Amino acid sequence: MSRRSVYLLVENIRQGTFALRRINMAGFFYPTKPPNGSLGAAATNHAAACSANNPSTSRIEDARLPRPVITFRPPSSEYDAGSMQFMRFSRHGGENHIIGADQRRNVISYDADAHTVHVMPRLNYPKNSTAVSLTVSGNLYVINSFHRPCSTQCFEALIYGRPSQGKQSGRPDWHWHSLPPPPYVFEPGYQLPPSNIRSYTAIGDSKILVSAKDIGTYSFDTASREWSKAGDWLLPFSGHAEYVPEHDLWFGLSYADDHRLCASAGLSAASEFNPPALRHVWEADLDTPKDWVARMAYAVHLGSGRFCIARFFQRALGEEPQEYGFDCREYESFAVFTGVEVRRRGMASGGGELGMVIHRSKRYKFVNEVFEWVL
Predict the structure, then answer these.
(1) What is the DSSP code string of 280-337?
(2) Tens of pLDDT along 226-244?
């Protein structure tokens, strides 16, 4: 299923709010090549703009952030500033459900198509802002990326049906089910922060893989609700990786190559002595100035081999004034969204090597805001 939009959530640190913006991805892709073989005007302009610099990268255009579609404000008090964690939940085949959970375990679901808010059951335990989430078989799985040693409160799933054991309820509904934590949190020598979840992905409709630094990779069976160790190897990704059926590969951002788009094969059959193979690491999609300091990065699969690559940066303003040994410069923050497409070269002749086509890049600047999530 193709996605038309991605969602950007940013926190306004002065107001204590989280604004959800919908980024229409149609404007990030040039028209496809016409059947007669000509490039077309848009593609020709794109090639001319890139040829003067790096032909493998995209020229960055300044753009205005769209207006928020909704703004969230978590509960707060004199002693509690309030925080939220957000997840995309593609239930029932839909793409536009955004789940928000605050520090007091309250959960709401926002349907961006219907512009409606649904109150959901409360989490069994709070989740931190670095928690990661996956939709598997229509259920939402949420796990803290930083587990406290021996913690049994880090993993839950939002499942439609009867509540978990020990609770009484009538008709089926959405309920949070507590799940067992990865076994390594009980092993001697486990510690934070080095052993956090580095990458994760779903395998089919019943398995989740998570890789933790200095630990290896573990597999969770959603049917049996049991963990097993897949191997001492690590997934080659940083953050979330997603299976793309048209290429039979898992795509994500590379952990070892400056967060470049990469693809891996063999995750379904991976075992202790048969780690997945890294098949492709493409060239950088951006050629950025030296004073841009890279922060977070996301890769969102849009369908049909198209991706949104979102990269976040900071840039110091002015010289380097020092006060008592501290850097007191002001910084500006911004995000660059790039539309890229992975397709086989020589499609007309029946296939070929996978290549990456870089389309358009747009920069969004933030004022009094801290970037948080791209969903």
Answers:
(1) EEPPPS----TTPEEEEEEEEEEETTEEEEEEEEEEEESS--EETTEE--EEEEEEEE
(2) 999 999 999 999 999 999 9
